[in-house]
Every structure is written in structure tokens, then in C-alpha cells.
Amino acid sequence: MELHTLALFSATVIPLICTPGPDILFISAQGLSGGPSAAWKANLGIILGYVTHAILAALGLAAIVATSPMVFHTIKWVGVAYVAYLAARMIMSAMKANEVKIQKVSNKAVIGKAFLTSFLNPKGLLVYFAILPNFIQLSESVAIQSLILSATFIVSCVVIYGVIGMLFASMHKKQGYNDNKRRITEGVAGGLLTFAAIGLAAS
């Protein structure tokens, strides 16, 4: 694959990556409410979702979903429902006054939620369905080209999402953290996820 093809592909997908959506808002919410560790766990889960997309695209299985509107819309609305569920739980928690307790969230919990957020995100699927095929040359191995382009997209996501996650994590203060701050941060994080669900439904 030629270098200028990768550069053009990057120039196409980077603006899409930077556009606020479920992935960015989930990472932002985790960074705001849980600090750097939660932000990076969320980033890892998001990337694992895209890695799964990349493998499916390389194997050609993603084309089955692309040609079936029913399957695509099912994935879309499952994703909307899941993000809305996360938002509702966080907002309800913010509305309740509780004693501040240090809770250790397992790596699997955050990573698993992030994975579903990206895997069920139609915008992520559309990168592979509508954009990536335009940069494939039939004269070369389709699977290898797909993996190279997918890797370019994923590395871009890691860098951009990492920066965004750290920006929001810097707002998380562990020292002097009290219940009022917990309710505020969870309320803001829940609000971000609510906008993510709305944007996902409207996409």
C-alpha cells in the first residue's frame, strides 16, 4: 500500500474521530469521574471494539451486516439503549446523597462497557463499511490492506482519545473529594452520556 493512500485515509478519518460521539463522551465521562486510570481503561475498551471491527472487516464478515438494514438498525438501537442505560445509572447516582466511599471498579467492568460502546456504535461500523473500501486496491490483498488501514485508524484513535481522556481526567480531584463533588462529576458525566445516546439515535 502506498504512503499517500495512508495519508489520505488518515486525513479522512481523523476529523471523524475528533467529532464528539459515544466513544469520546464515554472516555470523557470516565476520566471526569474516575481519573486517569479510568480514562485509559475506557480507551482500551473502545480500541478493543475497533480491533474486533477490523478483524471482521478483514474476514469479510462485516459485509453481511452492511447489506442487511435490519441487522444494522438492530445494532444501532442496541447501542442507543446501552449508552442511555449507562447515562441513567450515573444520573440517578448523582441525584442521591451518600457517604463517600472509595469503590474499586474492576478493569473488566470499565473495559467491558467501553468495548460495547464502540462495538455497537454505527459510526465506527460506517468507517469500515463506507470509508475504508474506497482506499482498497483490488490488485493487492484486500485482507492485508484492510488490516493496514484499520491499524492506521486505531492508532489515531488511541492518540486522540488518550489526549481527550487525560484532559478530562485532570479535572478529577481525588484529594478533598466529597459527596457534593461526586454528585456534580457524576451528573456531568451522566449528561455527557445522555448527549451521546441522543447523537447515536440521530445518526
Topology (SSEs and partners):
Layout: H1 3-18, H2 22-59, H3 62-66, H4 69-94, H5 107-119, H6 122-131, H7 142-169, H8 179-202
Helix pairs in contact: 1-7, 2-5, 2-6, 2-7, 2-8, 4-8
In terms of per-residue confidence, which ranges show pLDDT below 50 for 5 or more consecutive residues? Answer: 100-104
Overall helicity? over 70%
Round the Cα radius of gyration to an integer and report it.
Answer: 18 Å
Strand content: under 5%
Total number of helices:
8
Mean pLDDT: 77
Task: Please report the total strand number as a whole number.
Answer: 0
What oligomeric state do the depicted chains represent? single chain
Largest sheet: none
Q: Which outline best applies?
A: globular
Query: H/E series, N to C?
Result: HHHHHHHH
User: Strand pairing plus helix content: what structural class?
Assistant: mainly alpha
The first-to-last residue Cα distance is 32 Å
Structural summary, described in words:
This protein is mostly helical. 79% of the residues lie in helices and 0% in strands. The protein has 8 helices and no strands. It is globular.
Concise overview:
By secondary structure, the chain is mainly α. It has helices at residues 3-18, 22-59, 62-66, 69-94, 107-119, 122-131, 142-169, 179-202.
Based on the model shown, name its key terms.
mainly alpha, 203 residues
